What we know:
Chain A has strands at about 5, 10-15, 20-25, 30-40, 40-50, 55, 65-70, 75-80, 85-95, 105, 110-114. Chain A is mostly beta strands. In chain A, a hairpin with a 5-residue loop joins β7 (about 65-70) and β8. Chain B is mostly beta strands. Chain B has a domain at about 1-15 and about 30-55 and about 75-110: Immunoglobulins (Immunoglobulin-like).
Amino acid sequence: KAGVTQTPRYLIKTRGQQVTLSCSPISGHRSVSWYQQTPGQGLQFLFEYFSETQRNKGNFPGRFSGRQFSNSRSEMNVSTLELGDSALYLCASSLSGRNQETQYFGPGTRLLVL
Amino acid sequence: GQQVMQIPQYQHVQEGEDFTTYCNSSTTLSNIQWYKQRPGGHPVFLIQLVKSGEVKKQKRLTFQFGEAKKNSSLHITATQTTDVGTYFCAGRYGGSQGNLIFGKGTKLSVKP
């Protein structure tokens, strides 16, 4: 089975721009979660989608949004980029996002905001 | 809010020495997961602990979940250079759809 894939792998943007990141979960997985990883804050939960609905949301501003398509692929969007948004953005998939399920992480998209 | 504290932040050991990282939550966890992230890589799932007092082993790695389900530890016996990386614990609170709260991680370096 192919793992979680994320595109693009690397991205450079400037302040004020917006960006869209894509995540394709493992085949059959319907839950996709997004995380932001920075050296200072570590891994922080952004949001989780299941069956095209946002089911959980972390403590991030409204500039961070996401969506999930009927094939379970997910996108996250960050508008009006700030320097502090530079980070590794990871998505993770699981079968249904239930409490005891394993999450499988993708390789991440490394975003640099100049 | 809910937080998972992890210590130490860094650990430098000589190859062959043991290593332990600890995670603590102020409130009861539903379960806890452990991940390893190699330099430049992404977190890779190691194990999940669910039951109070649970102990699981994977070769040289021993994982424990406290009786009160508020703390957990990962112990590596006789470290090897391949153990290098950052080890994260991630806790889930309540419900069936609680999101994972990650500790800040312990970065392990092993000197050959």
